[in-house]
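Entry 14: structure prediction run for chitinase. Input pasted below.
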Amino acid sequence: MVKVSMKAALSLLVGALSFAPVNSIPLEASSHNMSDVALKFVSDAKNAVPAAPHFVIYSDAPVSGQTGPPPVSQIQGFNVFALSFLLTRGAFDKALEWTQLSASQRSTIKAQYAAAGIKLIVSVFGATDAPTTNGADPIATANTMAAWVKQFNLDGIDVDYEDFDAINAGDGKAEAWVASFTKQLRTQLPQGTFLLTHAPVAPWFSPGRFGGGAYLKIHSTVGSLIDWYNVQFYNQGTNEYTTCSGLLTASSSTWPQSSLFQIAANGVPLSKLVIGKPATSGDASNGFISTSTLATCVNQAKNQGWNAGVMVWEFPDAAASWIKAVRAQAFPE
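Run finished. Output tokens:
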């Protein structure tokens, strides 16, 4: 997710400063290794991919008095919770907090989330990591991150790839990197057992705007391996995706054919397109719409045959009351 607000920027800085000593060691060298041996390769039927609609909430900002994910009561109405972020240089913020809990604490939380029908995953990369530009190896990175998911007993992984310089280069290297990374993740995190989602910005589905094809190319290459896309319909311009029309059926000329149904018309299954929005105007530079407007848009989309779900950045600005309002018309709890 693109972190543009002062709050989000401070969160990242605090996380980096607080967790630097831990992140100076390789992911697989965590001090929790021995206590997690029994959990390392858990992949039973309870990890199966949930049916749509998907209601996804990310968590990166520190929450006073809270280490790791919140009690399920605070996120009632969501069914996927994404700890953010696992970077190429280690776990930060909420992802790191998860490792700082004991194995017993993690097991208890996972059981509570499972009982509530909520999948617990980790989101990787985000706005502060540029793996292609920085020369990270996609295979080795995928192996390390998949091992982290297994080690810490999570239900899957969300690929929040935001290497804009690499995509904008238009030489196809970004698309090839993401495809290789995704394929290798699937060799380690089998489909149907672990979740694997991606979180592209909506303009990356605009045909003909990026030399390498951006996410239309990625989808054509490895889309069958991806469970769904948490599409970021924000941070792309002051007036982008801020009306139901612009969000659903007619994006602007700046990012043509990148609204929900236009993306589907260009070959991406409607069932894989989750609508992503910021919780408040402070959670993004632009693209925010009120919960009442979003609820109307979601209902309009459902009436046209869509039911993929809604994603939000981020907890605690969004919580149970936020998703209840957004679901109210189309998917009442």
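Notes: The radius of gyration is 18 Å. Will compare against the previous run tomorrow.
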